[in-house]
Design goal:
DNA-binding, alpha+beta, globular, Jelly Rolls, homodimer
Amino acid sequence: MKELIKKIKSNQDLSTEAEEYLYSISEKKTFSRGEILIGQGQSVNKIYFVLNGCLRSYSIDKNGKEHTLQFGIKDWWISDYIGIHNNEPAILTIECLKESIVIEFNANKLNNIFTVFPEYEPFQRNLLERHVVTLHQRILNQLQLTAAERYDLFLKQYPDIELYTRNYHIASYLGITQESLSRIRVEKNKR
Amino acid sequence: MKELIKKIKSNQDLSTEAEEYLYSISEKKTFSRGEILIGQGQSVNKIYFVLNGCLRSYSIDKNGKEHTLQFGIKDWWISDYIGIHNNEPAILTIECLKESIVIEFNANKLNNIFTVFPEYEPFQRNLLERHVVTLHQRILNQLQLTAAERYDLFLKQYPDIELYTRNYHIASYLGITQESLSRIRVEKNKR
DNA sequence: GATAAAAATTGATGTATGGTAAGAAATTAT
DNA sequence: ATAATTTCTTACCATACATCAATTTTTATC
């Protein structure tokens, strides 16, 4: 477990006490393919750090269609930040796509760490800044690239994700239907 | 100026020293419609806090088309966070849409505040968290709403923005052409 | 390994949005 | 106020992607 937390720490210095605190409020868990970690409509207070495997967060719209917001792979954090921030029921479902080991945090307790160990702040700030940059880039990609270009880029960003995702997971992340993605893949193979 | 910074402070407590530091590294500026604050391709090290008026950040794609990432209105921060984070030339242009008063920060100096005044951390964290939530919501809207629905939502979020934006500013934010937006508006008026 | 279930592909067709171009309207400059 | 410029609207046609349905392929289960 110690070494697992090291990954959370990244390159930041963190006191042993703060590290102990992280242990005390977290729980290492294993999930299998198909398991739901957070369900849309339920109350949310969990934040996950992925040690290995693959999770997916998605929203189900009024027509019952799924829209993937994020894939959670190794060393990524994943949760329903909208639900947590608004203090409302989850608007996302988080599902396990392949056998995964994660560290589960209680959101409130994790948020408490800043009052107890302010030294944790720079780490969190760095994390949030990177998150914002990633999201900005994603929005720009969505605005200016074609579906085929977005798919190419996606494969570069998640090189072996196709090993454990279904076509429609990726399609719903790219904002197209699975049929369209299928056609894009056919075209791509012709090239 | 004191009261201006109060807005930045929001509801957070901030020591007088930290406040003084913020003064010392910032500069209050006025821009007129059409002025470019940051130009795509140039180096970026500025971050703006909008006191009043309206700014817009956008990217120009390989076909010369503009794609609006963000509108910067009262009390919003705006910059090219991608360029700053990657330490690369700006990928965004920031333009002034109507006479605006802003506080201009040097990104590096602003970043320094955390070593000098760690008490500023919670404020920044809160800001970043809200930013992430906003972006998550925007991505979900883009994925699951029609252009007309996104336009309706946009008008609710920015009630009087049409007073100082052009049609194509909004269209490029919604991910459609100005012609399509025009048609959507016509349909909307029929309802 | 056989069977069932789920997912991917493919074809035919529909729809939303894009592209181009022209004219109308609104805004800005003189 | 008038002229010049920019923006908005509209029409027509093009295209990317969606929808629906049938078929093939892959994956899971017994």
